[in-house]
Design goal:
The complex is a heterodimer. Chain A is mostly helical. Chain A is built from 10 helices and 2 strands, in the order H-H-H-H-H-H-H-E-E-H-H-H. Chain B has a single domain, classed as Cytochrome C Oxidase, Chain A, CATH 1.20.210.10. Classes of the chains: A mainly alpha, B mainly alpha.
């Protein structure tokens, strides 16, 4: 259409007159040969010096490891950030939490609420009462019918942990579970206590059933650690400290 | 009619050259202008969304949320408008300066179609949520090879044309065009490979992205715009460019430092300190070529500044060139800590990008388009009033946009640096400025709708059939 018409025009009437705008325009640009002025040279030199100084000051010696340059990072105003002071007990329980997360979490859940045929730990008498049978459950596992918080479980098995956890880890995880889920916050289980339990039950080959567990009032022997507040009683510490009921 | 004219033969030859490049150049110009219209509308929308997310908040328009409209706007502006307009201008300049009619416009048209398809896919991809969310590289990953191949086709074509040039001086614009030709594929490929294909550490990615922005500005947008300015200033004046030494210094200076720029944005960041330092030094060194170029243009113009008044091409080009100088000087100042810290992480980024893409690049392109199109379509721009409207609305819109974003950004960064007040304060500190930016966008939309309309009239041959060019002042020369 008009495209072709135009072309047609161009081809058949290539007289100068048809190219108004082209004819009007001045010649194609050329280049003059004026010299560079002194002031420009001076300006260039100044830019070079400033840039070079900049590079020297900020490049940190071209070291890949140096990432900060003086003056770049403004000093924060003095804000006192109180580093949270962890007590010995907190640290001990934190260790237990780590073991719990690594070992027990998958079955008993982060909340300790259990799931399906895996019984809860929260407020369970197996947690809050005698420490010997709790240690037994962890050391040698658990199977068969069991009643927890009034509900019956039994179709699943808890595997023994004695091969994978050492005395200290078991002691910490027991303390953690008792603190967090059992509400027993005034005493802990120590590694000496677990050592005693291992001494007594470590050789057992079978997985525990309710029948093979120690009695509900049987506590592992051993002292409470010194850092624990309040100071534990002198000799038969755990049994004495634990209210007997 | 001024008849300071060379021989008729020359005129016919130039007319024949113009005719031979008509299709591809008009193709690039019109699609670029269409993308420009899209991008300014998106620019307005993303600006509104920044301060009033409820704007246009209909379920069917959910894709206009800031997180999508902002990268879509930038993508459409840079790849849809800027590069395409630049290519159109480069093709025309190259043909004129090599004094060769072109033989094979089909390659260019095909490349142009691919490019447009790439940009379209990219923008749609962003709207459908597939953005990579990297500044200026936000198109979905699948798009960059399309753009890369399309651009490379044009590059090959331009080099072939350069090979076929008629004997004579290789004018400085040709150097800039060849530079932009080679640098874009290099920069684009490198950035995409290190960000999308073989991503290293996130820090290296961030550095690459900052480098891409700097290099795109200094090594692609600047050369294209300068090629045009170097051509049109002496062309319209009808006198030679002032000094070839300055031209050479300007070109090679930019070529040497351009590819090191960008990373100064991350000064004080977790990068090896030398990386921002090198980039900072590069933008400072860039002052040298920039001075050379500015002096060269200025001295060419000496005594004839009145022409800026009357010739549309001259007027746009002059503003563009001034914006370039301003941009570079400002970038250099920004490399210094106290200012840089205030402009690093706020709205000022937007100010800088708009100053580069709209302020200097687009203004030069508008100038070139006003000169080139009448020669391609054989009629004159319909009215000087419309050109003036485009000029003033663009200029004022751009200046206020840049100023507002810049000041807003300073204010915002200042608020960020207050450690003891809530972060929210910093965000609300920028708010009034963001609102101001939306107002400025209205100006830019108005000016570009006018431009698109005017250009369409020309493309559909509805321009004036006249011997007299459309002037915006009173003068008796060509524009």
């Amino acid at each position: 259409m008009s495209d072709e018409l135009q072309n047609h025009d161009y081809e058949h009437k290539t007289s100068v007159r048809d190219h108004g705008s082209v004819r009007r325009e001045k010649q194609e640009p050329k280049t003059g040969l004026e010299p560079i002025t002194l002031s420009l040279v001076a300006a260039c030199a100044a830019a070079l010096m400033i840039g070079g100084g900049y590079l020297g000051a900020k490049s940190g010696g071209f070291d890949f490891a140096s990432t900060t340059v003086n003056g770049y990072v403004p000093d924060p105003p003095d804000i006192e950030i109180a580093a949270a002071e962890l007590s010995e007990l907190d640290k001990y329980l934190a260790g237990g939490e780590a073991v719990y997360k690594a070992t027990c979490n998958g079955c008993h859940q982060v909340t300790g609420g259990g799931q399906g045929q895996i019984p809860p730990l929260v407020d369970a008498e197996w947690v809050t009462e005698g420490t010997e049978r709790f240690a037994q459950i962890i050391l040698n596992g658990m199977t068969g019918p069991i009643s927890v918080n009034g509900k019956s479980f039994g179709s699943q098995m808890m595997p023994p942990q004695k091969g994978s956890l050492n005395d200290k880890q078991i002691a910490q995880v027991m303390s953690f579970v008792r603190h967090k889920f059992g509400g027993v916050t005034d005493i802990v289980v120590t590694k000496e206590m677990v050592a005693a339990a291992r001494e007594k039950h470590g050789a057992q080959a079978n997985i525990n059933t309710v029948a093979s567990l120690a009695a509900a009032d049987s506590y592992l022997p051993g002292e409470q650690p010194e850092w624990l507040n309040p100071e534990p009683a002198e000799d038969a510490a755990p049994a004495a400290a634990e209210p007997e009921n | 009619m001024p008849e300071d004219n060379p021989a008729d033969e020359d005129v016919l030859h130039r007319a024949a050259i113009d005719r031979s490049v008509r299709l591809p150049v008009l193709f690039f110009f019109t699609s670029a202008a269409a993308w420009l219209a899209v991008s300014v509308v998106l620019g307005f929308i993303q600006s509104m969304k920044l301060h009033s997310p409820g704007f246009l908040d209909f379920p069917c328009l959910h894709f206009l949320q800031y997180g999508r409209s902002n990268p879509a706007f930038m993508g459409a502006l840079v790849y849809g408008w800027a590069i395409q307009a630049g290519l159109g201008v480069c093709i025309w300049l190259m043909a004129r300066l090599c004094r060769a009619e072109i033989k094979n416009p089909i390659t260019l048209i095909v490349a142009g179609h691919f490019w447009n398809i790439g940009v379209l896919l990219g923008v749609l991809g962003i709207f459908t949520g597939h953005s990579t969310s990297i500044e200026w590289l936000a198109f979905p990953k699948a798009v960059w090879p399309i753009l890369f191949v399309a651009y490379s086709l044009v590059v090959v074509w331009l080099f072939t044309l350069f090979q076929r040039r008629k004997p004579g001086e290789v004018y400085i614009s040709v150097l800039y065009i060849l530079g932009a030709c080679l640098w874009f594929p290099w920069i684009y490929l490198t950035a995409n490979v290190f960000i999308h294909v073989l991503p290293g550490s996130p820090i290296a990615k961030a550095a690459t992205s900052a480098w891409y922005l700097g290099s795109m500005t200094y090594l692609v947008l600047a050369p294209m715009a300068l090629a045009s300015a170097y051509y049109f200033i002496p062309k319209i004046l009808g006198r030679p460019i002032y000094s070839s030494y300055l031209s050479t210094l300007g070109f090679w200076g930019l070529a040497i430092v351009g590819g090191w720029t960008g990373i100064q944005k991350f000064m004080g960041g977790p990068l090896p300190a030398w990386m921002p330092a090198v980039s900072g030094a590069a933008v400072i060194f860039a002052i040298i070529p920039v001075c050379a170029i500015a002096v060269n243009h200025h001295m060419t113009l000496r005594g004839q500044h009145k022409l800026i008044e009357s010739s549309p091409t001259m007027r746009f080009t002059a503003v563009g060139a001034a914006a370039f100088t301003f941009y570079c000087v400002f970038s250099a100042l920004n490399a210094f800590y106290p200012l840089g810290a205030l402009t690093q992480l706020s709205q000022t980024t937007m100010a800088f990008q708009l100053l580069a893409v709209y302020g200097f690049f687009s203004m030069c392109m508008f100038g070139a388009i006003y000169f080139i199109v009448p020669r391609l379509v054989g009629c004159e721009w319909v009215s000087g009033r419309r050109i003036r409207f485009h000029f003033w609305f663009s200029t004022y819109g751009m200046i206020s946009l840049v100023a507002v974003h810049f000041l807003g950004g300073l204010w915002q960064s200042h608020a960020y640096a207050q450690f003891d007040v809530p972060l929210e304060n910093a965000i609300s500190a920028g708010r009034p400025y963001a609102i101001g930016a939306s107002v400025a966008w209205v100006f830019i939309i108005a000016s570009n709708v006018m431009f698109l309309y005017h250009l369409s009239l020309m493309v559909f041959r509805l321009g004036r059939k006249s011997e007299q060019p459309a002037m915006i002042g009173h003068a008796d020369h060509t524009g």
